[in-house]
Amino acid sequence: MIENNTDWYRNKAQAGLGLRRGLVETFSALKQGDVDFMEVAPENWIGVGGIFAKQLRSFSERYPLTLHGLSLNIGGPEPLDVELIKNIKQFIQTHQCPVYSEHLSYCGDSGHLYDLMPIPFKRDAIRYVADRVQQVQDILGQRIALENVSYYAAPSQEMSELEFIDGVLESADCDLLLDVNNIYINSINHDYNAADFLRALPGHRAHYMHIAGHYEEAEDLRVDTHGAAIIDPVWGLLALAYKTFGVKPTLVERDFNFPPLADLVAEVNQVRAIQQTAIQQTAGR
Question: How many of the other CB atoms lie within 10 Å of CB of 23?
């Protein structure tokens, strides 16, 4: 079994922000202690030079960088991009990145689709995805984490989303990136109980979490935008996740509609406050 990087995970009460190109200048004003780590999409930084390379290095020297990929296409019909995976491995080594995660979805078919498409919840899809995950882990020489994704249709469904997620993670022997906002979104869009869904996830594989805001399109439709403030029900799900599975390093995602830096740091501090409450409640049992 390929192991993950246990050193970084040892400090579970960590809260971070996603480093986006549009936030580089803003994040230069971060003070010591404002965030514990940052997350980047490696595809956006691999092979860049000049000022962008210097900016990235300035952050990787101050903070641990976790990686959350966009283009692995783990469920897609095309062969895996081995060159990309090797470049990611080199990026991990260069910047000593403790985590590499991707989406349990696909994003390409004879070209990049520039969206995260749902993998059919089917038994043969479990084996197909698991084999590809194992190939990635063998090349990288480390475990990866797959995120439970938001989706808006479930084509050719043979099983529940939960059964599919558990089947892939178990067959591939990889980790779970638990995204609490995606659980909330899917619970609205597909009419299920978010708390029950969260509790049923394979929590022993969840070592890292995401939380974000979204867009309310209609009463029964939410869109995963990462472009708004996090709402109270999603904060509540994060608290439940810590209560159920224990405190884990957690990233606040924001991809556009960037607010003032103080607002982003306030959301990071909200994560920390929920983490500390969960730790105190556990200690008091």
Answer: 18
Residue keyed to tokens 């472009």: 227
Helix 180-189 and helix 232-245: axis angle, to 10°? 120
Q: Which amino acid is at 33?
A: G
Q: How far apart are CA 18 and CA 65, in angstroms?
A: 9
For residue range 211-256, what is the model confidence (pLDDT) as tens digits? 999 988 888 889 889 999 999 999 999 999 999 999 999 999 999 9
DSSP for residue 78: S
pTM over 0.85: yes
pLDDT of 24-46, one tens digit each?
A: 999 999 999 999 999 999 999 99
Rounded to whole angstroms, the Cα distance separating 173 from 104 reads 14
CATH topology of domain 13-283: TIM Barrel (3.20.20)
